[in-house]
Structures are given as C-alpha cells and as structure tokens.
C-alpha cells in the first residue's frame, strides 16, 4: 500500500521533470537555429562587402578608362580642328587658283605665263650666282688633290684644343688655345718660340672677356672669332691686342647638335680661306648634314648659306679651302683620317662624296683641322699634338 502511494506521488514529479527537459531541448534547438541564421547572415554580409569592394575597384578602373578616352577625344578633336582648318586654307588657295585660271582666256596664256616665270627664275638664279661670284671674288683656280706629308711641331695640352696663325696679318705669331672651354690665349712670337721646351714661360697670355666653347675658333685680321661658352649659337669677335669685345652675332639654326659626331664638344666650327670667314654647323632639319654660312667679318652678319650633302655622322672635323668644304671622317676608335665629302659652293653640281684623300702616316683622331690660305697648309690638333699638313693642289 505504501509503495503504491509513493508511486502515485512520483508520477507527477517525473512528468514535470520530463516536461522541463522537453522545453529545454526545444530552447536549445531554437538557439542553434538562430545561431545558424546569424552565421548565414554574417557570411552573406561579408560576401556583400567583398562584392561592393570589387564593384568599387571596377568603377575606379572604368573611371580611369573613361577619363583616358575623354583625353584622347580632346586630342583628336584638336587634330580634327587643325585638319579642318588646313583643309579650309587649301580650299581657299584652290578657289583663288580656279578664279585665276578662269580669268585667263585660253591655254596659250598659261604657257606664256609659265615660260615667263621660268625665264624670271633662271634670270634670278643667274643673278644670284653672279652676285655670289662677285662676293667670293671667284679667284680660286685650284683644287685639293692630296695631302703630301705631316710634321708634328709640338705635343702640348690635352685631347682638345687648336693652334693657328693669323692668315690676315703679315706677322708670324703662333696662337695656342688649349681645351674645349677656356678664356686665355697663349701668343708666341714665332714658331721657334713655340717649339722650345719652356715655351709657356715666353708666351703672352691674352685673357678674354668671355670663355669659348669647343675648338672651332679662328684668328683673322687681328681678331679672335669663337662660339661663346654657355650660349646656343652666339659668335663673339674679340680684339686680341686690346682684349675687348669688338662684335657679336647669332648664327640661326646652329648649336643644337654637334657640327661633327666624333667631336661633340664643337657645335660651331669657324673657318678661314681665300674668301674670308665661314661658319660650319649641322642642323636637325637637314638630317644632320653640314650647313655652310659665309660671314661678313666686319658687319658680323651672314651673307649666304648652303645646305650640303655632307653628313656630320662619322665626321671629326672639316675645313674650307678655295670656296670648298672638305669634311674629314674617321672611326670612333680613331683610325686613319680621310676626306670623304667635298662641296664647292660655286659648283654644287660637282659635289662628290668619296674623293679618297687620306691623311698620311698617322693613326688617331683630330680635334680640329684648320686651313691657312696664306701658307696653303693645314694646322691640326690631334690627341694633344700640334700638326702641320702640307697640301698638294691642282688646277681646276
């Protein structure tokens, strides 16, 4: 009986405990479900963030591409406008030509006009050639046939420099200009004083108002003509005795590239021959070919210029002799120098590119090669040596 009573009393308690356990299991399942949903939401949010970042990167790249295309369209628009303007100009010229042709009664008039223009052009060319011959005196009747010998007079100074006599003066003074940038000339009484061992002690020092650049300077009629250091194309004229500036000029088109590829320190090379002062340089517009300019030494102005077929590529120096340009070529390592291009300003049709005149008995390069019209010799500077070359000439 007692056991039955206990059993009756335990049944409600067990039922209550089982109900509580059931509720707890349901709560745990609910919490697990909620946790899974939160994890799923977090993953989706993370994916959304990644997608948003990818979209931002793609938009940035798209923006850059759009801006680049817009810039290209602006450039294209400017080019199109330029082409349209050019086309309008050409149309205007064509319209004027059509109006002009329409005003001519027949084709015979065209022929007459063209013949008159041709005659006028030939007349102008003849007058120009006559003027040039008068300007250059046309007194040269010989051509260079070869270089007979050389004499190394002295070895002093560095790789770059120049030395010379004044062909416009009767004295026998020697001038030494050492280096590609300097402002002091050494003047010697004669060649004997120059060749002595202590020659620099006996030399007269001539300071210049402004330094020179390159090695293409010349002394003519008591004046030094040189390319001013630090300038693009300014040529100065200095009185050697008074040591003052006597003139200056700008040589248009010069100074942007070296006159000779193998002598890059020289942008403008000045020269003297029987006709006076010249300037030699190269221009990008001529494809690097050498340009000759005849200079009025008194007025410091260009009288005439010639574009030559002689290239500055592979050239180391050049000189003028009897109205004629002679370009000296060599190898970059310094081999046998040779004159490989000749151009006569009064007879351009007979310019030739391979005369085959070689410098004798010497291997190496030249910093300068200058012609002395009074002595008919070349004064050259080669690797620190001062050299004289004797010339062999023939009648034209």
UniProtKB/TrEMBL annotation:
Coiled coil: none annotated. The keyword Secreted applies. Residues 1-21 form the signal peptide. Pfam families: OLF (PF02191). Residues 139-395 form the Olfactomedin-like domain. Its main location: secreted. It is found in: Secreted. It comes from the Eukaryota. Disulfide bonds join 140-322. Keywords: Disulfide bond, Secreted, Signal. GO terms for biological process: signal transduction. One of its GO terms (cellular component) is extracellular space. InterPro entries: Olfac-like_dom, Olfactomedin-like_domain. The keyword Secreted applies. This is OLFL1 protein. The lineage of its organism: Eukaryota, Metazoa, Chordata, Craniata, Vertebrata.
């Amino acid at each position: 009986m007692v056991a039955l009573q206990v059993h009756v009393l335990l049944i409600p308690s067990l039922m209550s405990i089982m109900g509580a356990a059931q509720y707890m299991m349901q709560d745990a399942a609910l919490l697990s479900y909620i946790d899974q949903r939160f994890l799923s939401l977090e993953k989706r949010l993370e994916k959304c963030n990644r997608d948003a970042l990818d979209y931002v990167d793609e938009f940035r790249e798209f923006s850059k591409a759009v801006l680049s295309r817009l810039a290209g369209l602006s450039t294209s628009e400017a080019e199109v406008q330029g082409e349209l303007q050019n086309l309008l100009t050409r149309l205007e010229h064509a319209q004027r030509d059509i109006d002009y042709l329409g005003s001519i009664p027949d084709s015979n008039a065209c022929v007459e006009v063209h013949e008159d223009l041709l005659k006028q052009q030939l007349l102008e060319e003849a007058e120009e050639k006559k003027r040039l011959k008068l300007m250059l005196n046309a007194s040269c009747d010989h051509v260079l046939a070869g270089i007979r010998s050389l004499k190394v007079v002295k070895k002093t100074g560095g790789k770059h420099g120049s030395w010379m006599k004044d062909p416009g003066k009767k004295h026998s003074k020697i001038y030494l200009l050492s280096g590609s940038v300097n402002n002091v000339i050494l003047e010697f009484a004669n060649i004997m004083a120059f060749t002595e061992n202590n020659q620099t002690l006996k030399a007269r020092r001539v300071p210049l108002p402004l330094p020179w650049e390159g090695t293409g300077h010349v002394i003519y009629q008591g004046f030094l003509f040189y390319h001013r250091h630090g300038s693009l194309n300014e040529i100065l004229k200095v009185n050697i005795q008074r040591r003052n500036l006597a003139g200056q000029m700008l040589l248009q088109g010069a100074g942007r590239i070296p006159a000779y590829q193998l002598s890059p320190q020289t942008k403008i090379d000045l020269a003297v021959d029987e006709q006076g002062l010249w300037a030699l340089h190269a221009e990008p517009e001529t494809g690097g070919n050498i340009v000759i300019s005849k200079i009025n030494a008194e007025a410091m102005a260009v009288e005439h210029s010639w574009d030559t077929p002689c290239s500055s590529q592979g050239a180391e120096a050049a000189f003028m002799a009897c109205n004629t340009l002679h370009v000296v070529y060599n190898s970059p390592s310094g081999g046998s120098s040779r004159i490989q291009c000749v151009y006569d300003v009064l007879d351009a049709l007979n310019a030739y590119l391979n005369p085959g005149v070689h410098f004798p008995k010497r291997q190496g390069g030249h910093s300068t090669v200058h012609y002395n019209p009074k002595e008919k010799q070349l004064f050259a500077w080669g690797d620190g040596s001062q050299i004289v070359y004797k010339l062999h000439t023939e009648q034209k």
